Amino acid sequence: MKVAVIGTGTLGPAIAQVFAECGRIETVYLCRGRDLATGNGKDKIERAYDKLIRSGKLSREQADAYLDKIVTGPKENAARAELLVEAVSENLEIKRKVFRELDAICGERCLFTTNTSSLPINEIGDGLSRPLIGMHFFNPAPVMKLVEVVATEDTPREMIDTVMQVAADLGKSPIEIKEAPGFVVNRVLIPMINEAISIYAEGVASIDDIDTAMRLGANQPMGPLALGDLIGLDVVLSILNVMLKDTGDPKYVPQPMLKKMVREKKLGRKTGEGFYKY
Fold first, then answer.
1. How do 146-151 and 132-137 pair as beta strands?
2. CA–CA dist 225, 233 (Å, integer)
3. Out of 115, 136, 139, 238, which one is annotated catalytic?
4. Among the options 117, 118, 194, 238, which is catalytic?
5. Phi, psi (5° rounding) for residue 261?
6. What is the pLDDT of residues 233-247, one digit of tens each?
7. Is 117 assigned a catalytic role?
8. pLDDT at 37 over 70
9. How many CB atoms lie within 10 A of CB 57?
10. The whole model's pTM is what?
11. Which helix (H) or strand (E) holds 48?
12. How far apart are CA 224 and CA 218, in angstroms?
């Protein structure tokens, strides 16, 4: 199978890496989502493999074999794919524009999937000549086992089954869910992060103590504020805004400190500073 991954930011290269490591996959086209995007994303995969090689978890030969499967370039390369995974910015208009362009160049049998973490699948795929399904990987994609396969009322059963099987072939544990604001994980997780920010903003406890409380008191591997930094605080804010818009429920109102940190570009690990410094 030939796969196209669209987007060379945070998750796109990681998803491409996951596909390249699957024996069923022949070629992975890692495509820029925007013509002005800088970098081809493959350098991020190379750095990840270098760390694994240094730690003895991967051989140089195996890393080279995986890298040889990955072909970088513009999104026009997606015309050769049988499965497409869109992983561009979590912005409805950007995603819709990318899909309209891809719809015009991809073969009619190419399956379209989106890695959106919160946006409505129907709205992203509005006007396309083919159905769209959610295939939501989690960060870091090579490590996290879960894939949310998000189906709308109009998603063909055969398409759901195919995407579930592909995810299983990747060594993931897919779950099938109906489209709803925040899907499953983010509907539970993002309000928790928002509430942890509220606790810190109110001076109830320190950042370290909040994260320690949830690690040791709720058996979570990572505290909510550290997790927010890993996800990206801009992404956390975006998901809250989407869920607030779609439901009108005030429990999704973003904490003012979160909005302030995003304005100040303190987004977490990707900018070097969020609740922690990196």
1. antiparallel
2. 9
3. 136
4. 117
5. -65, -35
6. 999 999 999 999 999
7. yes
8. no
9. 9
10. 0.90
11. helix 42-54
12. 11
